[in-house]
Amino acid sequence: MSDQNLSKQNMMVIDGLELSKWDREFLLELKKGGVSCVHACCVLWENARETLSKVSGWYQFFQKHSDLVIPVRRGEDILKANAEGKIGIILGTQNTSSLEDELGLVEVFEQLGIKIMQLTYNNQNLIGSSCYEARDSGLSRYGKLVVEEMNRVGMVIDLSHVGEQTSLDAIHHSQRPVAITHANPDWIYPSKRNKSPEVLQALKDNNGILGLCAYPHLISGSETPLEEFVDLIVRTIDFMGVKQVAIGTDLTLNMSDDFLHWMRMGRWTHEMDYGAGSANNPSWPTWPTWFKGPADFPNISQGLLERGLKEAEVESVMGGNWYRFFDEGFLRQKEM
Fold it and tell me: Which range is the signal sequence, renumbered to this chain (predicted)?
C-alpha cells in the first residue's frame, strides 16, 4: 500500500501544535496532507480579557469555514471530523496568562473550548518557571491548585516550554497523564527547549505523551534531512515506547514579523529575546524541504514506513496516540 493510500484510508493524522496563519488556504493545505486534527495555539501572553477576544475570533472562524472544520471539545469530535473529511481544531494556550491569578478561570476557559493549557511560556509566571529561567523554583502553591483544577475539568496540561523542576513537579502532582505537545529529547538535539531524560522518564511513567517537533531551531535547522527526523522518532520510541510518541510540528507558516516580536517579547521586555532562535538567525526559520507545510505530512509517514516501522506503529505515531490521549484527557475527572 502506498503512503498516500495509507494516509487517506486508515490513518488519522493529528498535529500536537501549530501556530500558523489560519485561513482557508491553510485549511486546504491541511486537507492535502490528510490531517484530521490540529491543536491550534490561540494565546501566548494574553490576559483574560484578551483571551476572550481570541476565542471569539476562533468562533467566527469555525462558523465561516464550517464546511472544512469542526471545533474539538471531546474525543468523539475528532472521530467525527475524520469521518466527514474535515479538520478538527483543538484550542489551546501556550501560557497560563489567561488565568491571571484567578483559579476559577480554569473552568471558565475550559467551558469556552480551551482544552489544552501550557503551564508557562518562555518566562516565569505565577505557576512556575520556564525552560529559559536561570533558576527553576518549581511548581508554585497556585500552580499546584491549577494542576488539580485542570485535572478536574478535563483540560490537558502541556509542559513543552516549562522548566525542568516545574515539569517534574507538575508530572508528580498531576493525577492524570500530561502532555509535552512539541519538544524533542535534549540528548539528541541539545537545547533549553528540549527535554532531559529525567523529564521524559517521568512523562513515560505518568503515561503521558510527547509530540516530536520539526521546528527547525529544535532540530538541525532547515538542512535536517528527513532520515534524521525519522531517526529522532525511532530513537524516542526506543526510550518512550511506541504508544507514547506522537508528532507536534510547531509549524509556523505565513506569520508576520510583528507577530514574531509579540511571540518572543510579549510586554515583558523591550529588548529582543530570541527564544530557541539566535541573533545570527533572528527571523522565522526556514523549514526543511520535506516539511514546507501541512501538505507534506505524508513525507513523514512514508519515511517511517521506509525505516521499517509497521503500519500500525506508523498510524499510532501519526495520530492514533494523540487521539487516545485526547479522548481520555478531555473527560472530566468524574466521568472516568
Answer: none
